[in-house]
Automatic annotation (TrEMBL):
Protein's name in the database: Probable protein kinase UbiB
Keywords, in A-Z order: ATP-binding, Cell inner membrane, Cell membrane, Kinase, Membrane, Nucleotide-binding, Transferase, Transmembrane, Transmembrane helix, Ubiquinone, Ubiquinone biosynthesis
Superkingdom of origin: Bacteria
Xref: PANTHER family: CHAPERONE-ACTIVITY OF BC1 COMPLEX CABC1 -RELATED, PROTEIN ACTIVITY OF BC1 COMPLEX KINASE 7, CHLOROPLASTIC
Associated pathway: Cofactor biosynthesis; ubiquinone biosynthesis [regulation]
Amino acid sequence: MSNKRLYHIVKTFLHYGLDELVPKKMLPWYAKLGRFSLFWLQNKHKQKPVAQRFRLAIESLGPVFIKFGQMLSTRRDLLPPDFADELALLQDQVTPFDGELAKQLIIDAMGIEMFTQHFINFDSKPLASASIAQVHTATLIRNPVEENNSHKEQTKVVIKVLRPDIYKTILADVKVMSRIASIVARWLPDGKRLRPVEVVAEYKKTILDELDLNREGANAIQLKRNFEQGREYDKVLYVPEIYSEYSNKNVLVMERIYGIGVGEVNTLNDLGVDMKLLAERGVEVFFTQVFRDSFFHADMHPGNVFVDATNPADPTWIAIDCGIVGTLNREDKRYLAENFVAFFNRDYRKVAQLHVDSGWVPASTSVDEFEFAIRAVCEPIFNKPLSEISFGQVLVNLFNTARRFNMEVQPQLVLLQKTLLYIEGLGRQLYPQLDLWQTAKPFLENWVKEQMGVKAVFSKIKDNIPFWNEKLPEIPDLIYDYLKAGKDSQQQQMQLMEKIAQQQQASNQRLMFGVLAAGLIISSTLLLNEGNILFSSISGIAAVLCFVYSINK
């Protein structure tokens, strides 16, 4: 990172007065001197709240910082509410780069021959532009012929292409973020709790994953397969088709969709869309991905979600941009579902016990104290009507309380929390009366029954039949080998015990003759002092014989 970029970042922070976040009494003399030396960089936004200034500074620093701010807005366990609310307003609206340059980048990535044979009507004007990539429309020809393409299969597509030199830009800005994070961790009063170094490291991993469009394509294919025709919820979510044969790390070709942005509430109302059903299906989408598929779209903000309103009475959600996905293992799913159901029933004791059993908090945690802390946080919330309770906010409060009891950060739960907040926000934007609790409760209760009831036992047996069918012929041999090994092991143990007994007997005899030799030496000495040379000599010889025997035993 050049010093010029670092200076620009420092200048931006000082112009927005963000140095006020660090109390002056905590700064060492050299830090105060450094701030004084930049006397011409004064706060130009004194009339604005500090949280708003922080968001404006992030916006002015460009796409990489905007993306970071968006990620940071989901970490309500780390930020004060006013900061989290401000950062949630960040929009990924970035000036597009030259369309002809985008076209050349696409050609360089897939090759001139493939591009000219398979793509026509490429629009140099981008359809959308974001911090990492921008999107152009084109027409894909699946079966081209050299003479005439007009009668062949044509499909409207969008081509997503990474911004030029975005990898270098991201690495450079992340490097500066890491340096700033180290300063924040050291000097900010709440620096250690905020864990800025770890947060930046988490962001670096997430954003570098987004730079591989092959990964995004694979995620979209998996998500589409989970909701394809014939599945129980096939009308709930649609994912555009990915054309992998034309895609690579820098370019992604996908089906063009013509949905309505989920944020265009007036348009949806004008079309007569069933908003209650649409909102409830949004909840269904979330819980289906999490608890049925263990694979969920973790970036479902309004820019990535559209609505197919072709049939207003039967609307379908459309999801794009699958660069960030989350997964849960079986244990995480079970504990999470049981936690939700326990919350529905206000069984805080079970919530506390589940957190200890899952290993999310240390085993030494007092369940009684943990239960009391959860009750103190959640009981006032439940005094409101259910339709006014934020499901996502309850989850945030739960995680905040658990962290006071040394709960380890669970990355998959952070993504889950972020996605739930998005879904709940979208659902209530579409249908303000949405009662997410009542919508989700039957789904979760049925899921828990399916996972833990009699039906689940038979289902697991059924799933394991191919494995046991393969292993069944081997069982007699395995039993024979086990019994034979046990018999051989028993014989070896008996031989070992006999050898130990012999060694113990020999050791006892050595000890006995050693003690006898010492006694004879003492007797020989006493007899010699009394002048009885004959008996003294006999006793001495006997002592030597006993000593020699004890050594050789």
